[in-house]
């Protein structure tokens, strides 16, 4: 799977970023074309390495358990799965913990397939078809906003403003989780086929900080095959916490 392997065809970002950043619409169009043609199953969501699914689910579930144990996540009413695709994370991770899970993805066909893949509407809230670069989460709704393997689809600037809108979407004491592949050696890599960047962790953290977030817990995914980018799970809270409504 090229997006998550260290050895795949990709370029160091400076040139690619500069040319693409002038026209982020082109990058987003490329992504939409790529993802609307992928297979609508776990294989497609995991870029051709379906064996990632098991360890990924265990890693995310354990991460959520630690957030609960450490009182980082204290309510389990509503979660939002960003870049949800067919609902793999929704079904196997979030629905086991949250009363209701909303989903957002750029690709209509993937969101449509999620009904069959998940197999029940019970525990599914709203389904939004929109790019995260423009999506505005409902205000103060979510105990957790989960952003997995999609942050690299946004330019630095759009990711910053998306995270700022996510902060507005958090319920009091809400948490944003980013689960993402990160590059080594401090370089951002651009993948032309699906218009996606793999950033170093330092840049991801800088973007989160610029958006007004700070890290409350982080860990690395284990159990993946060798040769893939490292995958980090990062829990973030707003620097200025969301206040309870006084009604
Ligand atoms: C690698 S898949 C990950 C899917 C899911 N998060 C998972 O882990 O199974 C990337 C997903 O992000 C979606 N996506 C790509 N660009 C997006 C964007 N700009 N806004 C929202 N979703 C996007 C794709 O349609 C695809 O479903």
Automatic annotation (TrEMBL):
S-adenosyl-L-methionine binds at residues 83, 88, 132-133, 148. One of its GO terms (cellular component) is cytoplasm. Its EC number is 2.1.1.244. It holds the Pfam family Methyltransf_PK. Keywords: Methyltransferase, S-adenosyl-L-methionine, Transferase. It catalyses: N-terminal L-alanyl-L-prolyl-L-lysyl-[protein] + 3 S-adenosyl-L-methionine = N-terminal N,N,N-trimethyl-L-alanyl-L-prolyl-L-lysyl-[protein] + 3 S-adenosyl-L-homocysteine + 3 H(+); N-terminal L-prolyl-L-prolyl-L-lysyl-[protein] + 2 S-adenosyl-L-methionine = N-terminal N,N-dimethyl-L-prolyl-L-prolyl-L-lysyl-[protein] + 2 S-adenosyl-L-homocysteine + 2 H(+); N-terminal L-seryl-L-prolyl-L-lysyl-[protein] + 3 S-adenosyl-L-methionine = N-terminal N,N,N-trimethyl-L-seryl-L-prolyl-L-lysyl-[protein] + 3 S-adenosyl-L-homocysteine + 3 H(+). It comes from the Eukaryota. Residues 1-22 are annotated as: Disordered. One of its GO terms (molecular function) is N-terminal protein N-methyltransferase activity. One of its GO terms (biological process) is methylation. The keyword Methyltransferase applies. Belongs to the methyltransferase superfamily. NTM1 family. This is Alpha N-terminal protein methyltransferase 1. It comes from Caenorhabditis remanei (Caenorhabditis vulgaris).
């Amino acid at each position: 799977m090229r997006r998550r392997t260290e050895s795949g065809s990709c370029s160091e970002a400076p040139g690619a970023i500069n040319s693409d950043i002038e026209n982020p619409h082109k990058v987003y169009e490329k992504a939409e074309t790529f993802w609307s043609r992928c297979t609508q199953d776990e294989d497609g969501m995991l870029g051709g390495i379906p064996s990632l699914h098991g360890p990924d689910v265990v890693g995310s579930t354990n991460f959520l358990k630690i957030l609960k144990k450490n009182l980082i996540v204290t309510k389990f009413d509503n979660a939002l799965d960003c870049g949800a695709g067919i609902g793999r994370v929704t079904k196997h991770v979030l629905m086991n913990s949250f009363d209701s899970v909303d989903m957002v993805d750029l690709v209509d066909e993937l969101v449509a397939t999620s009904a069959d893949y998940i197999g029940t509407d019970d525990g599914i809230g709203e389904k939004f078809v929109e790019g995260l670069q423009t999506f505005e989460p409902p205000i103060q709704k979510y105990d957790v906003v989960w952003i997995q393997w999609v942050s690299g689809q946004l330019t630095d600037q759009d990711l910053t403003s998306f995270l700022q809108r996510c902060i507005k979407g958090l319920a009091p004491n809400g948490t944003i989780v980013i689960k993402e592949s990160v590059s080594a050696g401090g370089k951002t890599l651009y993948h032309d086929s699906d218009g996606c960047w793999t950033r170093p962790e330092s840049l991801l953290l800088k973007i989160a900080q610029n958006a007004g977030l700070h890290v409350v817990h982080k860990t690395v995914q284990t159990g993946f095959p060798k040769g893939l980018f490292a995958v980090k799970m990062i829990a973030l809270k707003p620097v200025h916490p969301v206040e309870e409504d006084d009604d």
